Amino acid sequence: MSESAKGQVSLRVPGHSEARAIGSLLLGGATLVALSLALPHPSGGDTVALATIAAAMAIVGVICLSLFRRVPLAASHLILAATAAATGLLFYESGVVAGQYGSIFVWSTLISAYYCSRRVAVAHLLWILAVSAASLAVVESTAGYSPLTRWLFTAISLTVVMFFTSIIVAHRARADHRARHFFDLSHDMLSTMDRDGRCVEVNEAWTNLLGYGTAELQGRLLLDLTHPDDHARAIEAAREIFAQGAESVGLETRVRAKDGSWHWLRTSSSLAPDEGLVYARSTDVTELKQVEAEREELLAQVEVLARHDALTGLPNRRSLEELLPREMARARREETSLCMALVDIDHFKAYNDTYGHLAGDAVLRECATAWDAQLRGADSIVRFGGEEFLVVLPDCGIEEAIEILERLRAATAAGQTCSAGLARWDFMESREDLLGRADAALYEAKVGGRDRIVHSP
Fold first, then answer.
1. In sequence order, which ranges of 307-449 are alpha helices (DSSP H)?
2. Rounded CA separation 346/357 (Å)
3. Each residue of 114-152: b (16+ CB within 10 Å) or e?
4. 18, 93, 327, 387: the active-site residue
5. Cα angle vertex 323, ends 318, 326, to 5°?
6. Burial of 208 (0-12, 13-18, 19+ CB in 10 A)
7. Residue 290 contacts residue 263 (beta carbons within 8 Å)
8. In contact, 424 and 338? CB cutoff 8 Å
9. DSSP 8-state assignment for residue 375
10. Per-residue model confidence as pLDDT tens for the chain (457 residues)
11. CA-CA distance, 239 to 244, in Å (whole number)?
12. C-alpha distances in angstroms, 185 versus 179, 181, 256?
């Protein structure tokens, strides 16, 4: 194995397995707390607080185990870090750092060392040690040792745990890599072709995957089995091989099986000039292609969700970070007026308190739909936060902007009223200053009795 290959070996398995391990950790920690409360133990700790923390750990643990396929990697890291913080709370509420809850620190270190990259695992260890230090600074008892001594014991113990776990993981990773390498080779689709592209010989992997007998493939133009949309790439790769003697690496084409299904093959080929044959090694990557397509679709959906408010369907503040600079640049370039307004539903908190949050959510959705319908085609409305919405009005002067905002006021749903603060960009101020003027105008509208529009001079 080359040095570069060694550097790439890893047994880190983030995602689903990590979420399940963290869920088990949380349930184990909750069980540990429950046992500590059920069995004879020193008095002085806050039993209610400890039970509450244990219940929270158990709930999150059950969620992780039940929904582990949906837990993203970033969330797993956050939950693992939160587990360390919860352990610190257990120390604090029990009043002694030398308690049994230190096992949770060890389990957390094991999980991070096994599933995370080395850099992330070290970050988790540092966080655990920081939580330990904070706990030592506030607990009443450190079991006869000074806080510094107790912290050093913890730091040394957890570092050793991480060190040996990393060694074991690396050793197993290298062994798995070698086994996987030989396994892949034994299942590769190996073939030879003549200069006309006719099959000379194939191994059993071809027949196993595509369903053809060896005799059906020998002497056959493999291009006949290739998807028409992939012919151009396959022919170009063949020309390069024969004209330049170059290797074709990673050519991906679809090949028709005997049952009519299509399989994606990733093929590497090279020419043996003395024999006039092309040696090819192909791997079925159909499932990988499906996963990539699903991932691209998911990423596109996530991108849409990330830029739109889940409740109202309007663009959110993240979209505003792109929208506002773009409109400001356009206004400067075309020397047109740009106005911006913050619109706030009046007395919305009181409405929520009276009718409940579900009714309040319905008002937000109805207002968003009604207001969006009153805008011009080039205008934009963004869910700014809570009951506040931001309206961007390009190529619009103050008078026209007020007319548009009056239409919004008239269209406010569910018998509610709204207040608006309007500001016109002066081509010089920053986005923050423009937002600040609109916000100040909105505040003035609220102070002035609400249900009105105030524009910043």
1. 317-334, 348-355, 357-374, 398-411, 431-447
2. 15
3. bbbeeebbbebbebbbebbbebbeebeebeeeebeebbe
4. 387
5. 140
6. exposed
7. no
8. yes
9. S
10. 333 333 333 334 444 578 888 888 888 888 888 888 887 766 667 888 888 988 988 898 888 888 877 778 888 888 888 988 888 888 888 877 756 788 888 888 888 888 888 888 899 899 989 988 888 888 877 666 788 888 888 889 888 988 888 888 888 878 767 654 543 454 678 888 888 888 888 877 888 888 888 788 888 888 889 899 988 888 888 888 877 776 777 788 899 999 999 998 988 888 887 777 888 888 888 888 888 888 888 877 777 777 888 899 899 888 888 899 999 999 999 999 999 999 999 999 999 999 999 999 999 999 999 999 999 989 999 999 889 999 999 999 999 999 999 999 999 988 899 999 999 999 999 999 999 999 999 999 999 999 999 998 7
11. 8
12. 10, 6, 23
Contacts of 9 (CB under 8 A, 6+ apart): 1, 170, 173, 174, 177
Q: How many CB atoms lie within 10 A of CB 11?
A: 16
User: Which of 82, 63, 86 minimizes the C-alpha distance to 124?
Assistant: 82
Q: Annotated catalytic, 387?
A: yes
In angstroms, what CA-CA distances link 253 with 42, 256, 284, 290, 372?
70, 10, 10, 14, 47
Type of residue found at 11: L
How buried is residue 396: exposed, middle or buried, by Cβ count under 10 Å (0-12/13-18/19+)? buried
C-alpha distances (whole Å) from 125 to each of 97, 129, 148, 269 are 17, 6, 17, 47
Q: Which domains does the chain have, with CATH numbers?
A: 3-184 (no CATH), 189-287 (3.30.450.20), 317-455 (3.30.70.270)
Instruction: For 394, list phi and psi in degrees, rounded to 5.
Output: -75, 155
Residue type, 353: D
Report the candidate in 314, 316, 340 with the shortest Cα–Cα distance to residue 327. 340
Six-digit token string for 385: 């936060």
Tell me the DSSP string of 218-237. Answer: TT-BGGGGB-GGGHHHHHHH
Q: Measured between alpha carbons, how far is 88 from 105 in angstroms, rounded to an integer?
A: 9
CB distance 222 to 199 below 8 Å: yes
Matching residue, tokens 């003549």: 194
Q: Is 135 helix (H, G, I), strand (E, B) or coil?
A: helix
Q: Write out the two tokens for 129.
A: 């040690």
DSSP state, 454? Answer: E
